[in-house]
Amino acid sequence: MSIARAIINDMPILLVDEPTATLDRKTSLDIFKLISSLKGKTRIVITHQLDAETLSMFDLIYVIQDGRVVESGNYNELSSRDSYLHSMQVLSR
Fold first, then answer.
1. Cα(88)–Cα(82) distance, rounded to whole angstroms?
2. For residue 43, how many C-alpha atoms fall within 13 Å in the half-sphere facing its CB?
3. 44 has which bridge partners?
4. SS3 of 17, please?
5. Exposure letters 9-22 (e unless 16+ CB within 10 A, then b)
6. Beta carbons of 49 and 63 less than 8 angstroms apart
7. How far apart are CA 45 and CA 18, in angstroms?
8. pLDDT given at position 18
9. How far is it, in rounded angstroms, from Cα 58 to Cα 9?
10. How far, in Å, are 3, 20, 81 from residue 90 at the CA level?
11. Do 62 and 72 contact (CB within 8 A), yes or no?
12. Are 17 and 46 in contact (CB under 8 A)?
């Protein structure tokens, strides 16, 4: 509901925390695709989704461990090296 309201009101910044937490995988991907398609807006998404399809939609990812940013970059940068993000993805499989 808050995503729709932000789109209708043409808000310049969209901040969403776990917007797909209770949704099935297909619907979740549809929501993330919608968010990533919003051009001309600052989009900040907080998520625990670790799959490549979701994470590759975002320009910049900040990975937080124990309350601190431990790495940042786009998905290709973070998955192409021995990163904390990569280790979390391996553990979540």
1. 11
2. 23
3. 15
4. strand
5. eeeeebebeebbee
6. no
7. 7
8. 94
9. 23
10. 31, 21, 13
11. yes
12. yes
For residue 92, the cross-strand partners are none
CA-based nearest residue to 75, from 89, 25, 67: 89
62 by DSSP, 3-state: which? strand
Residues 51, 61: contact at Cβ < 8 Å?
A: no
Write down the number of H helices and E strands in the chain: 5, 4
**Mean pLDDT in consecutive groups of 10 residues from the start of the chain, 93 residues:** 82 92 93 92 92 93 94 90 81 71
Is pTM beyond 0.85? Reply is no
Tokens 């940068």 label which residue?
A: 77
